[in-house]
Every structure is written in C-alpha cells, then in structure tokens.
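Known limitations

Structure tokens in this collection are predictions and should be treated as such. Users comparing against experimental data should check residue numbering before alignment. To illustrate the layout, the record for Isoprenylcysteine carboxylmethyltransferase family protein is reproduced below. The input appears on top and the generated tokens appear beneath it.
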Amino acid sequence: MSATTAVFQQSKRMRFLWLAVPLLLTPILLAQSAWPPETRPRQGMEFMGFAFVVICVAGRCWASLYIGGRKNRELITTGPYKYTRNPLYFFSSLGLAGIGLTFGSLAIAAFYFLFGYLVFAYVSARESIALDGLFGDAYREYCHEVPAFFPRLRRSARDVAHQSPMTFNPVALKRTAIDSSCFLLAIPGSELIESLQSARLLKPMLHLF
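Generated tokens:
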C-alpha cells in the first residue's frame, strides 16, 4: 500500500462511524441504569460523564489547533501530540466513555470506550503505514518515544528541543468543534431516554451497573 492511497481517508472513516451508530445506540435503548436517578453513585457518574464529554470536546479542539492545515504535510510532535500520537482518537474514546456515564452505567461506558479504542487502534495502525512512508526515520523515532494511544505524561529532552509555534486554522477548528459537539448531544439525549423510560414509552430489557 502506498502512502498516497493509505493516508487518512476521512470520508470512509466517518461513513463507518455513522454506520456504527445503531450499534452504539442499542445498549442505551435496551438497558437502564441499575442505580436510581436520585442516588449518589448515579449522580456522580452523570457528573463524571459530563466532565469527560467536556474534556473530549476541549481536547479535540486543542489537537486541531496543532494539526489543522498541517496534516500529512508536517510531522506534528508538539502540543497534545507530544503526549500521544493520536490525541483526537484518545479524546474521542474518552468522550464515548463519558456518554456511557451520562446514562448512569459503568458497563456501557466501558463498552463505548473499548469500542472506540479498538476502532481507532485499527485506523491509527493503517495511518501509521502512511506516516512511515511520508516521514521515515523521523516518524519511527517519534513512535519510539511517544505512545500510540494512552498519553505519556512525562516529558523528554526531545519535547524541549522540538518546540514549534501553534498554528491557527479557523476552518479546521470550526469543523472539529462542530464534529465534537455531537458528543454534547448525549447530555439532553440521556434525559430524554430517561423520561421515555419513566413514562413507560421505552421499556428497558436490562438493568446495568
């Protein structure tokens, strides 16, 4: 596979994610939290879920400030990219977990996070082939020092030596902000589904912790 054909086929990736929406909706439509809404564990999970979603949106926008307009043209190793090679995927998976928590279920949150991790791991592995072809030894050195998914919090001497200015691409940032806002829909969505379940218009088949 050449670098040209392998590089970041965004439209195909987004098409796949939209096709996966029914799979992701199934748990929240067929299940209900085993914790009543007024209990502290349920309220704590909902608050944590909201926090994860906000971090997801902010993190994706942060990554966009560094990669917007530079993707495939430069090897980005600064900003969030000095902690993980795929910050957009990490924050997206965190947002998926947050969606599960807003529905008051650790099980759904774990399933969503695992789904995001597996999907993005596959995508990033294909992208890695393209980046290796584009940037060669520089990319291989970057891979050696920075993990693919889970962030590395410590800094190395290379981080200081390779500081580059942050660029601002308003079009890329706007696109990322709009895409990320879909995660925020989970908050009113969880309230709507809870109301439908309380009115017995939506009957859950499972009660999940």
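For this record: Residues 41-208 form a domain with the Four Helix Bundle (Hemerythrin (Met), subunit A) fold (CATH 1.20.120). The chain is about 65% helix and 5% strand. Please report discrepancies through the issue tracker.
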